[in-house]
Design goal:
This is D-alanyl-D-alanine carboxypeptidase / D-alanyl-D-alanine-endopeptidase (Penicillin-binding protein 4). The protein is 31% helix and 15% strand. The chain has 466 residues and is an alpha+beta fold. It has two domains: 226 residues, 3-Layer(aba) Sandwich (Beta-lactamase); 148 residues, D-tyrosyl-trna(Tyr) Deacylase, Chain: A (3-Layer(bba) Sandwich), CATH 3.50.80. The strands form two sheets. A seven-stranded mixed sheet has the order 1-2-9-5-6-7-8, covered by helices on one side. The N terminus is likely disordered.
């Protein structure tokens, strides 16, 4: 221990893991999400739910040996070099490994080369929105009085996890039926005949540059819209490939009319008048909750919404370009090296995205450190190998089982691309951060590339590499 950061680092990680487990337990004991009124008229704040309770994994970043030394560059080179020649990884492999305690580089292979990162992009988006707003910030969906009798304006606040009722795509979501009840109370019997849906918080193209043509039609994402429910899904399911609406705001408006008992009301797109009277508002769960869902399940709709919210915070156009610019600025202001930044969306769906492995590990090193406690949610949201989220069915091959419960990482997959970036602890007790990105994966070879990446991460756990 050279700089006193090592014990604090572990306290940080333990705090994150304890908070996640405690919140899960409270969610279970309370029977899931509920709505509470904080005493202000028309203000509904959903109780925070952490999602389903999972069986505890064998180990999740077990306590380290305070005297543990990091692997050496020579040791890691000997252990990893042959793994990077695995044909399943395709034509281009880029890897960065750092010591989480001090951020020093332990292994580098094409680590400064811009590569297509796929959904590991979401770690960058998560860092951007957490640094910009803080993990406790809540998004607000509001209903305003319209310009004529019987008209109301439903204004989106950028929360794509809204639910219409008790059926939802995201546990703990803010429910629009409770908002509708408050609106009915505020209107005192006035019949709603027209609903204007205002999604003007976001602007520009709703479909990302460089997205494959089947992203929306295949149900992988929805058009980015500031007024969205259930991630744009037509039905309240958690399925990542569920059918999605092409007009999220109008879809929400029509369902909201039914919740108000105003099925015959006209629903149109528009904007609220300046100074319009507020009838009611609905608060989202904290951003920490949304970011956790985004990372654990690799949710594309949440990710692209979060990126645009960073643009809103920075006073930039809430477009794909504005969001990318804003995230880069926020990271730079936090002292994170952004020299390898080349993103065009927040989800990683675009094939035009570029990041370097060094940027990814530099960001994770900052998250593990003590200067930016806002980033603890990023660590908590990373899936655990063979246990949760997009890693629930990974690390099953004999060559990768050493990583079970000891690797927390964000996955990334596009056709031809497979990536993995996260944090782990070595057999000697040293915390490492890593990023491995394979471009040019053979057609139909996604599973093989994932297995090869899992083996790399598991090797970091077990090799010692002194």
């Amino acid at each position: 221990m050279q700089n006193g950061r090592h014990p604090v680092l572990w306290l940080t990680l333990c705090w994150v893991l304890a908070a996640v487990l405690i919140t899960d337990l409270l969610w279970f004991v309370r029977g899931g999400a509920s709505e509470v009124d904080d005493g202000r008229v028309g203000v509904l704040i959903p109780a925070v739910a952490a999602g389903p309770v999972f069986t505890e994994p064998p180990t999740v970043l077990s306590p380290d040996d305070d005297s543990a030394e990091p692997p050496t560059e020579a040791g890691l080179t000997a252990a990893l070099t042959s793994l990077l020649t695995d044909r399943r990884l395709g034509t281009s492999v880029a890897v960065s490994v750092r010591d989480a305690e001090n951020g020093s580089t332990l292994f580098s292979r094409n680590a400064d080369t811009p590569v297509t990162p796929a959904s590991t992009t979401k770690t960058v988006t998560a860092a951007g929105v957490l640094l910009a707003y803080g993990p406790s910030h809540r998004l607000t969906t509001t209903v305003l009085q319209g310009s004529t009798p019987g008209e109301i304006v439903l204004v989106g606040g950028g929360d794509p996890t809204l639910a219409f009722d008790e059926q939802h795509s995201y546990p703990g979501s803010a429910r629009l039926d409770t908002l509708a009840a408050s609106v009915r109370t505020a209107l005192k019997g006035t019949q709603v005949t027209r609903i204007v849906v205002d999604s003007s918080l976001f602007s520009g193209s709703a479909v990302g540059p460089g997205w494959d043509s089947d992203i929306v039609s295949g149900g992988y994402s929805a058009p980015v819209n500031a007024l969205t429910a259930n991630g744009g899904r037509l039905q309240p399911t958690a399925d990542h490939e569920a059918p999605r609406t092409s007009t999220p705001d109008l879809f929400v408006g029509r369902r909201f009319a039914r919740l108000l008992g105003a099925e015959g009301a006209e629903v149109v797109q528009g904007t609220a008048a300046d100074g319009a009277q507020q009838l009611a508002e609905l608060k989202s769960p904290p951003l920490s909750h949304l970011v956790d869902a985004m990372l654990t399940e690799s949710d594309n709709v949440i990710a692209d919404s979060m990126q645009r919210l960073v643009a809103v915070k920075k006073g930039l156009p809430a477009t794909f370009a504005g969001g990318a610019e804003a995230v880069k600025a926020v990271l730079s202001e936090a002292g994170i090296d952004v020299s390898g930044f080349g993103l065009v969306d927040g989800s990683g769906l675009s094939r035009l995205n570029r990041l370097t492995p060094n940027l990814l590990t530099g960001l994770l090193s900052a998250a593990v450190g003590t200067q930016h406690p806002q980033l603890r949610t990023l660590l908590a949201g990373l899936p655990v190998a063979s246990y949760s989220g997009t890693l629930a069915d990974r690390f099953e091959a004999p060559s990768a089982t050493a990583g079970v419960g000891l690797v927390r990482a964000k996955t990334g997959t596009l056709s031809g691309v497979s990536s993995l970036t996260g944090v782990t602890v070595t057999v000697e007790g040293r915390v490492l951060v890593f990023a491995a990105v394979a471009n040019g994966v053979p057609s139909g070879g996604t599973q093989g590339a994932q297995d090869a990446l899992d083996r790399i991460a598991a090797t970091l756990v077990q090799c010692g590499c002194r």
